[in-house]
Amino acid sequence: MKVSVAIITRDAADDLERCLASVGFADEIVVLDQGSTDRTAAVCARGGAVLHQTPWLGFGPTKAKAAGLCRNRWVLSVDSDEEVSPELAAAIAALPDRPAEAAFTVNRLSRFLGRWIRHAGWHPEHVVRLFDRERAGFDDKPVHEAIRTAGPVGRLPGVLRHYTYGTMEQYILKLDRYTTLAAAELHAQGRRSTPLGAVARAQAAFWRKWLLQGGFLDGAVGLVLCHSSSFYVLSKYVKLWRLGRR
């Protein structure tokens, strides 16, 4: 099977370099950039990737555009801060030319403050990433986008390593951006919130991740993650409440 890798990025040259090194099995690598001012162009040139530019369209539409730039029917969508493990790469390379499946899920393992998180709802995390463009594609959600399929979905061995938040500063910056987008999406759907409701949802999120999903097994970093996830929920629904008051 010939596979194209599609990556969207902005000012993430160091992460992108690691990502590109892990997808050497691909027939084609397409990077869709949003005006990076760092070494992204040089990293793409060294890594054999074709670089394109686009204004930011939201996560779903931007990833759909990146997939649309690929020449192969099968596309592996990878974020610039992700790395394909050797086992996953081998599994993809071994697929037949015409599998019955319309798409395949991969198991993503994410890193938070220097620790691989294996609980708290973060792992296992099976996400659709390899797909047949004729039977699957990205939705148009501006955040928390997903690949929708019209056919059976298989599962690949190996892991997709996600080097997500190395510092709290990184987490806070992304939290602010993502919760603003998520609140706007909920508001457009007619959803509303209250301060009490926002606090209640945040508290429920903490206990679900910490106790029910085993966040306590990830130690001190797991505790920080669960509180951070709770604050994410609080921020999103407070922003939704503020949108409803305008």
Secondary structure: number of strands: 11
Q: Helix and strand succession?
A: EHEHEHEEHEEEEEEHHH
Stated plainly, the CATH topology of the largest domain is called: Spore Coat Polysaccharide Biosynthesis Protein SpsA, Chain A
Number of domains: 2
What is the typical, i.e. mean, pLDDT? 97
Cα shape: globular
Rg, Å, rounded: 19 Å
Quote the beta fraction. 25-35%
Structural class: alpha/beta
CATH architecture of the largest domain: Alpha-Beta Complex
| Major sheet size, sense and barrel closure | 9 strands, mixed
Assembly of the depicted chains: single chain
Number of helices: 7
Q: CATH class of the largest domain, anyone? A: Alpha Beta
Distance from N terminus to C terminus (CA atoms, Å) equals 52 Å
Query: Roughly what percent helix?
Result: 40-55%
CATH superfamily of the largest domain: Spore Coat Polysaccharide Biosynthesis Protein SpsA, Chain A
* Low-confidence spans: none
